[in-house]
Amino acid sequence: MATDMALMLRDVRIAGYRSLRSIHFPVGRLSVFVGANGVGKTNLYRALELLQASASGTLAHALAAEGGMESALWAGERRRHEQARIILKGGFAVSPVGDNDYSYEVAAGVVLSGKTDDGARVPIGAAAFALEPQIKEETVLHYHRGRAHKLLERRGPSAMARDADGERSTIGSELLASETALAAIGDAARYPDIWALRQTMLDWRFYHDLRTDRTSPLRQPCLAVTSPTLSSDGGNLAAVFATLAYIREDTEDLDRTIDDAFPGATLEVPPPGRFANFGMRFPDQPKRLFEAAELSDGTLRYLGLAGALLAYRLPAFIALNEPEASLHPDLLEPLARLIVRASERTQIWLVTHSERLAAAIASNGAIEPLTVVKRHGATWIDGLNFAGAFLEEEET
User: Which domain holds residue 326?
Assistant: First the structure.
């Protein structure tokens, strides 16, 4: 596999995390999860963020920031002798179908009273602070022609990886409990497949904090630096628009999107100097340019979503958490069309409690939204069986 080839997320397994007892399901080009408040939709979204954190080497810190393992672990009962672990796994493919797939799995646990979560004594080099999230195991597999080849294996502080020549070697020295082996892979030429997998995950973008308050980054001018992708907080939105207007010199899709959402309105992006700016001109006040600081919360949030989904270069994977927040109901149909068009350029994972938005995406994109429910206290997806397939897939 070439190191510049993006991998598509094809399935996800999450176990032992908050309301996610154990769930495994396929992921498509456009996945829409809809459900009531409190069923665990955000935990599905957050689990993907943790998977990316493993690629960046910050998984232990991310879990600690959630309140530690005591808060992050499955909140329900466990079977006798069951290990207290969070397991995250992603299956990847070069194309939606084929026989050239990869998977990455990581397990995190805790150390209590000098012993691991399975009761064994803590090995040298694996010690951690009390209740600190500890990386227990990691595995990268390559599936080809019906066989699984182990490219990376980590047990405790030791990790082995298979290089491009098929030779096994140790990854660095003993890993600390807070470090991931995947993040320790630093040689793209020696470990091209593992490197490409990690880079794909690092390229993911999560948009859930596009604030619209008075001090929001969306409302501020930003440095005029070519910006092919919107940052997670939207702080470079003006530069993203300027990149389309003056670097790519093509705003046709952006202009069409603005007119679809705000008929007769135009987005104006002046030539950037040291800073980049933008404003909106509306048909009822054509001589008045409304700068970003003056726009309504809904208008500004919609522009932020447009920047995320129409940027010059989209990331390999975009996750949206309740993008309908602050939007007027009339904007849900245009937003659905925007999301469906963007899914032709990248993979999109969307979590929402708006059945109207989910239905609009379904009608525009010919996909079936997935309904998230609670089953026996655990987050589940309606129609999913325990083998990780949906009922309609079993019938085909």
Answer: 206-365
**Residues 320/348, Cβ–Cβ less than 8 Å:** yes
- Show the tokens assigned to 294: 């003056």
Cβ atoms of 355 and 34 within 8 Å: the answer is yes
CA 157/CA 177 separation, integer angstroms? 7
Q: Which residue has the tokens 């026996």?
A: 376
Residue listed under structure tokens 């466990």:
78
Helix boundaries (H) for 243-366? 252-261, 297-310, 332-342, 355-365
Which one, of 8, 19, 31, lies nearest residue 91 by Cα? 8
Question: What are 343-385's pLDDT values in tens digits?
Answer: 999 999 999 999 999 999 999 987 999 999 999 899 999 999 8
SS3 371: strand
Residues 189 and 260 in one domain: no
Q: Would the pTM of this model clear 0.70, i.e. be above it?
A: yes
* Nearest one of 258, 214, 269, 210 to 234, comparing CA atoms: 210
**Of the candidates 228, 200, 203, the residue with the CA atom closest to the CA atom of residue 3:** 200
Same domain, 328 and 221: yes
The pLDDT score that the predictor gives to residue 79 is 77
User: What does DSSP say about strands 30-34 and 370-375: parallel, antiparallel, or unpaired?
Assistant: parallel
Closest listed residue to residue 183, CA positions, set 217, 154, 222, 204: 154
Closest by CA position to 309, among listed 247, 234, 217, 235: 234
Quick one: 115 and 255 in the same domain?
no
Contact (CB, 8 A) for 44 and 379? yes
The CA-to-CA distance between both ends of the chain, in Å, stands at: 31
Which class for 63: exposed (0-12), middle (13-18), buried (19 or more C-beta within 10 A)? buried
Other Cβ atoms within 10 Å of 83 Cβ, number: 16
Q: How many CB atoms lie within 10 A of CB 136?
A: 23
Query: HSE (CB half, 13 Å, CA atoms) of 200?
Result: 29
56 and 23 together in one domain: yes
The tens digit of pLDDT for each residue in 78-99 reads 777 778 899 999 999 986 555 6
Residue 380 maps to a domain: no
